[in-house]
Amino acid sequence: MDVYPLRFSDLFMERVWGGRGLERVLGKTLPPEKRIGESWEVSDQPGAMSAVRNGAYAGLTLGELRERFPEELMGPRGLAMGRGRFPLLIKFLDCEDRLSVQVHPDDAYAAAHEGGSLGKTEMWYVVAAEPGAVLWCGLKPGIDRPALESAIAEGRVPETLAEVPVSPGDCFFIPAGTVHALGGGLIICEIQQNSDVTYRFYDWGRVGLDGRPRELHVQKSLDVIRYGADRNPRCLVQEMDVPGATVARLVTCPEFAAEKLVITGLLESNTGETSFHALTAVMGEGHVRAGEGAPEPLRRGETLLIPSAAGRYEIESAGELVVLRAFVP
Fold first, then answer.
1. What is the distance, to the nearest Å, from the Cα of residue 20 to the centroid of all Cα atoms in its chain?
2. Residues with active-site annotation
3. Are the CB atoms for 188 and 182 separated by under 8 Å?
4. What gap in Å lies between CA 20 and CA 96, rounded to an integer?
5. CA proximity to 4, closest of 58, 43, 44
6. Please, what is the Cα angle at 125 between 227 and 155, to 5 degrees?
7. What is the DSSP string of 167-212?
8. Per-residue pLDDT, 208
């Protein structure tokens, strides 16, 4: 495999709760007159496959690259975690309006009920937030299945939710089975398992893009929610200073690890040839060098994928560059 930082085409998703914030805040060129809620940065989903934009593999999809070079691309850990596919899906979200109240299944439930899909554990990093923005994560104490079932039937779901104020730079960990919803006025970077399985059980009384109420999945939601297991959703950050940067571990779980890199010079790093490293810039700009080729620019709102086989690579900032790095631990 030719090793270099892989850049993919953006996949834009129109959503009823979306807007034009990814253009305004991140500088993305959006299709005109559409409410874009999501930009899929790295995707190995059927029907929504990222395509390489640069270098020797330009034009190949992530799926084609994964089939040709499974271990070189993903590493043994990434290969094992993805059940044959790339294990993560990385997105930006523009929440102009509230998202539905929803929950995702774990791997076992998704495999049994969703055609062998992975479950969905995820994390959110708040790129931008309007004053007073909130999200909802978890149920209030004492809300068990019968109480939630009654609240759904009576349209009282909002009063069961734990509300959390948010600011730019906040990070939240959302394990499978956790009730959650993003509020309006947020730009989010989401790192998640490679799954598009969502169970929606409350949608604020609105209709979808087609003018009809969106489908709800009440029974499946009630089945997969982890009642009584809610915890502080904010990431417990562990920081370490290294030459050229500060590295903050945000999330470590079996499915993925995520770090925030605040780079002020030259950061030397290494995949260890055990997993890919996905690099998503949330502030600033710089360059990434892997392999023998020229360095690849990296700017706010962009993602580069370092193949596992790269081993050593470098990130150099132009001023200060803030990057989210995701891999399989």
1. 19
2. 200
3. yes
4. 8
5. 58
6. 40
7. -TT-EEEE-TT--EEEPSSEEEEEEEES----EEEE-TT---TTSS
8. 94
Instruction: Identify whether the C-beta of residue 248 lies closer than 8 Å to the C-beta of residue 275.
Output: no
How many whole angstroms separate alpha carbon 305 and alpha carbon 140?
39
- The one-letter code for the residue type at 136 is W
Name the residue ranges covered by the structural domains of the chain: 6-224, 238-327
Span 135-161, pLDDT tens digits: 999 999 999 999 999 999 999 999 999
Q: Do 6-224 and 238-327 share a fold? A: yes
Confirm if 104 and 120 have CB atoms less than 8 A apart: yes
- Coil, strand or helix at 79: helix
> Which SS3 state, helix, strand or coil, does residue 299 take?
strand
Calculate ∠ Cα 39-67-10, nearest 5°. Answer: 15
Per-residue tokens: 34: 């559409």
Looking at CATH, the fold of the domain delimited by 238-327 is given as Jelly Rolls (2.60.120)
The per-residue pLDDT for 285 is: 98
Neighbour-count burial of 101, counting CB atoms closer than 10 A to its CB (0-12 exposed, 13-18 middle, 19+ buried):
buried
Q: In angstroms, rounded to a whole number, what is the distance separating the alpha carbons of residues 54 and 296?
A: 9
User: Which of the following CATH numbers is that of domain 6-224: 3.30.390.10, 3.90.226.10, 3.90.920.10, 2.60.120.10?
Assistant: 2.60.120.10
Indicate yes or no: pTM above 0.85. Answer: yes
Q: Which two tokens stand for residue 259?
A: 């770090």
Q: Two tokens at 61?
A: 């999809």
Query: What's the pLDDT score for residue 221?
Result: 98
Dist. CA 138–CA 180, nearest whole Å = 6
